[in-house]
Structures are given as structure tokens and as C-alpha cells.
User: What shape does this take?
Amino acid sequence: MTNLKKLKKLLSLDARRDGLLPTASHALPFRIDPPGAREAFLICHGYTGIPDEMRHLATVLAGAGYAVSVPRYPGHGTCREDLFHCGAEDWLRCALDAYANLSAEYPVVHIAGHSMGGLIATAIAAIHGSSRLVLMAPAFSLSIPRIQWIPFTSHFVRDIKRNRQPSDFDRSNPARMQIFAQYWQDDLVAPTAGLVYLSRLVRGLLPRVKARVLVLLGEKDTTVPVSVSSLIGRKAINASHIETVVFDNAGHLFPFDSDRDRSSTVVLRWLADSASKPT
Assistant: This one.
């Protein structure tokens, strides 16, 4: 779709007709600027995720003296109809803008990302040359059945009804329940094609990454396989150092579910260890 067609489509939207909703309260982007902070972190959430999912890690990093920015991608945290009008270029542009704003205030900006956010974080690190890059279950490889057909299918099907039920984790989290039916109850085929395209494109940027890289993976992740670490190792040939940590019994949501404490602890330890090892 050309930019002109996309603009006309956006201008033709009617909130009542198209079911557009305001941003959910827990989906708002946020900043934390501790007094005296001299370095910052941009943290990128995952596909159909929300900034609040990154709040624990952001709070831990802020407690360690880092300023933190967590943007919200267009079409996220509102409703699926909103997501259908966005694409990978919109999500990447949003994160690039957030990085530009953060780097205007802080001379050193590190980048972290979960799942699709790991792809976006990698792209920004490749473009801007960040010295520290934290990748949490980065979606360079996906275990989703028939994922290779998604770009083709998306031309004919927008979504597939699955009527999934919330997990116990979802039910215990008001922020997730607020948007569960919009994003995770069914398969959103059309926007998922954007995730697949982004994954393929950013793999090509891995050789441009020169940062020290921390890769965190979940042993029982059914979305991003542990084997993605090998792919990163093969392609990120110019990274100054790559460290991989696999959390036993952890799934895809380890940065913000019951494993959030051990994952944030590993990030802090890695930052402390790498502080004396300049890129």
C-alpha cells in the first residue's frame, strides 16, 4: 500500500464504525528519569504487547541509575482494528523517534527489547551503534505453525477466530485482561505478516551490530526457540561480545511473568560486568 493510500485510509476512519478505542491505561508509554542519570535505556516491548510489560525491568534499571524510556507502538494497547491500520514501518519509526528523543538528553543510550522488540532494538543498535544491546527472546526465528505462509495469507485473511481463553497469568493481570480479547484471543494474520517481514529484514542487519550483546532465552518458550542464539552467533559477527543465558523452565513472557526477577537480575549483573569492558 502506498503512503498516499495509507493516509487516505487513516483519514477515512470512524471511531464508532471501526470500533477504535482509546489507549488502555496500562498501555501508555512512560519515562523514568532518575536524578543524576548519565546513561539511558530504550526498552522496546513485543508484538501486540504493551509498555507496562517492560515496567519491572524499567524500574530495576532506573533503580540502578539509568534513565529509561518505553514507547508504545502504533496500533498497540487499543484494539485490533487499530492494529490493522499499522505496519512494521510504523512500529520501527516509533522506536527510532523515542531513541532520538532519549539520545538528545543522554550521551549514552543502551537498547533492550523483548520478542519483536528485540528485532527493533537490533535495528536501532545497527543504525546508531549502541554499545550495549539486551535481547530477550528476540524473534529472529519463530516456532509459530505455518509461519512461512503468513505473508501470503495476509492478502486474503485479516484474522482467524480462535476464541482462546485467558491463562491464569492473564487473569491475574488487569492490564492484560483489558486488551486480551482485542489482541490474543484470535490470530491476527494481517499484522503478523509485518512481524515476519521485520524478522527477515533485521536478520540482515545483525552483521552491523558492534555492541556487547546479552541474549536471554526461555527454555520452554514455544514462540522463540532457544536455537535463535546460534543464528545470532553466526550472523552478528562484528559484535564485540555475545553472552547467552537460558532460563530453565521459563516461557516466552519471562521478562514480566514469574521469572521477571531473575531476568532483571541477570541484566544488572551483565551491565556491571561489562562496565569495565568497553566496546
